[in-house]
Write a structure and sequence with these properties.
- The chain is mostly helical.
- It has 14 helices and no strands.
- Helix 3 runs parallel beside helix 14, helix 4 (91-116) runs antiparallel to helix 6 (139-155) and helix 5 (118-124) packs across helix 10.
């Protein structure tokens, strides 16, 4: 899923940073007749690809973007905590689930995205493995397909619920980047898919597999949904640095649709409002200390949001590094409250 943060972001496919001058000087969008077919080899975007026959192993590791694995792994861990199940009795399920969420499913989503984004990356980030030619030919597509299969194999260890969740996550990963759906072509749909997959689905799966595949408590499902909505805003943070390439390739990210200031204000509101609801719910459920903790974390985010909205293109990456960790810390605080509700 494109999926947050240099500690917590977003999964979401990234591109190189650009200045405001670059944005103002961006050329007109490329016509559809010039577009490279979705399954064309990498040599169609980079002449360097023809000089290599097999990928560099370092390039494959870079393709998987390990730094993006944290969000779904963290969300799965939150679900594990919220379930109230004994960690000592089910430690291996937790470890397999965290491994599946990050190095498997999330890594697959990054490989899929890099393949179908190779044209955009050739503009925004030409040193990425595929446009640079370090992963030549159709190796990028092959790696994405192979890792999809391996992810499904690992998912069988988590039982029917875990396998079904992995299938859904992988479907979203391909739908996000690949035609004909290519959800990322519209920032509203693409970010929703990423937020649902990286946060909500991972949380619910972690809670479910720890209790033998039973449906998680309604409170846990509600928390997963609220933090998924908030993650929509986090995903937008990754789009500011890709505005030039996105405009040229017809990708209607929120910064392209709303402009940088409008997208920054929208992303901030989408991140903050669900947390307000979380605070109210925790207080109503009798977890006052947890509610105050989340409120304190939100206050820190609001201060950073004001600073971020003033210069979003230049400051999006910094907000990802300092603001988003406060968001995900609130997730775990909420998970421990639900664990208390479960009587653990």
């Amino acid at each position: 899923m494109h999926p947050m943060v240099r500690l917590a972001v977003p999964a979401v496919p990234s591109h190189s940073a650009v200045s405001l001058a670059d944005l103002q000087a961006a050329p007109a969008a490329r016509s559809k007749s010039e577009a490279i077919p979705a399954f064309a080899p990498a040599s169609a975007t980079s002449p360097l690809a023809s000089e290599r026959r097999v990928p560099e192993w370092r390039a494959v590791a870079e393709l998987f973007k390990p730094i993006t694995w944290f969000p779904p792994m963290w969300a799965f861990a939150c679900g594990v905590v919220a379930s109230g199940a004994s960690l000592l009795d089910n430690w291996w399920l937790a470890l397999v689930g965290i491994f599946l969420a990050g190095p498997m499913v999330c890594a697959t989503s990054q490989a899929v995205n890099d393949w179908f984004d190779r044209e955009v990356d050739a503009i925004n980030e030409p040193n990425r493995p595929i446009p640079s030619g370090r992963i030549p030919g159709r190796w990028g597509l092959a790696i994405a397909i192979i890792w999809t299969g391996v992810s499904l194999l690992v998912a069988t260890a988590l039982g029917p619920w875990g396998f079904a969740a992995a299938c859904l996550g992988l479907v979203l990963a391909w739908a996000y980047s690949a035609p004909p759906l290519r959800l990322k072509a519209n920032g509203w749909y693409g970010n929703a898919a990423c937020g649902l997959s990286y946060e909500g689905l991972a949380w619910v799966t972690g809670a479910a597999v720890m209790v033998g595949g039973a449906m998680p408590a309604k409170a846990s499902l509600l928390m997963a949904l609220l933090y998924s909505i908030g993650a929509h805003g986090i995903m937008t943070l990754n789009d500011f640095k890709a505005m030039v390439g996105d405009r040229q390739m017809g990708i209607r990210s929120l910064p392209v649709q709303l402009g940088a200031p409008g997208a920054a204000a929208t992303a901030s509101a989408v991140m903050a409002l669900p947390q307000v609801v979380v605070i109210v719910l925790l207080a109503q459920w009798g977890f006052a200390w947890h509610a105050w903790a989340v409120a304190g974390l939100l206050l820190g985010q609001l201060v950073l949001m004001v600073w971020f909205v003033d210069k979003p293109v230049e400051r999006a990456l910094y907000y990802s590094g300092f603001g988003v960790p406060l968001f995900v810390a609130g997730m775990m605080v909420s998970a421990f409250a639900l664990r208390g509700m479960a009587g653990a």
